[in-house]
Amino acid sequence: MRMNVPFVFQREMRMMKRFTPPSVLCIVLLCVSASADDYSSQAKLDPSPMDAANKQFKALDHNHDRHISLDEAHKDPELLKRFASADTNGDGQLDQAEFMSKPSERPGD
């Protein structure tokens, strides 16, 4: 079906026909990918306190059992001071949630 379009707009109409759904999808994916790269590079430049705490937890967990024992806590004097209050379940080791909890979130503090 041919539409009666003024000659001036025929070129633009031909250009619009070139934008098929797959090409539009590719353009959208490229834009999303570029914005995701910007976000990830920003995150690398500005690490959150949670990332720092995760790294500290992993560094202290020498045997990689996802718990910090009292022996492992001796490597960090600040952690050693708060170990007993942070060990909320009394099992003699800190899991990641106990390690990251603030004193105000602990029962009895």
Architecture overview:
This protein is mostly helical and 109 residues long. The chain folds into 2 domains: 7-45; 49-105, Recoverin, domain 1, CATH 1.10.238.10. Helix content is 62%, strand content 4%. It has 6 helices and 2 strands. It has helices spanning 7-18, 21-45, 49-60, 70-73, 77-86, 96-100; strands spanning 68-69, 93-94. It has a two-stranded antiparallel ribbon with strand order 1-2.
Secondary structure layout plus pairing:
Layout: H1 7-18, H2 21-45, H3 49-60, E1 68-69, H4 70-73, H5 77-86, E2 93-94, H6 96-100
Antiparallel strand pairs: 1-2
Summary keywords:
single chain, 109 residues, mainly alpha, Recoverin, domain 1, 2 domains, rod-shaped
- What's the CATH class of the largest domain, please? Mainly Alpha
The radius of gyration computed from the alpha-carbon positions, rounded to a whole number of angstroms, is 28 Å
First and last CA, distance: 78 Å
Poorly predicted segments: none
Largest sheet: 2 strands, antiparallel
Envelope shape: rod-shaped
Total count of strands: 2
Q: Tell me which CATH architecture of the largest domain applies here.
A: Orthogonal Bundle
Percent range of helical residues: 55-70%
Task: Give the SSE order as H and E letters.
Answer: HHHEHHEH
Describe this structure in a few short sentences.
The protein is built from six helices and two strands; from the N terminus they run H-H-H-E-H-H-E-H.
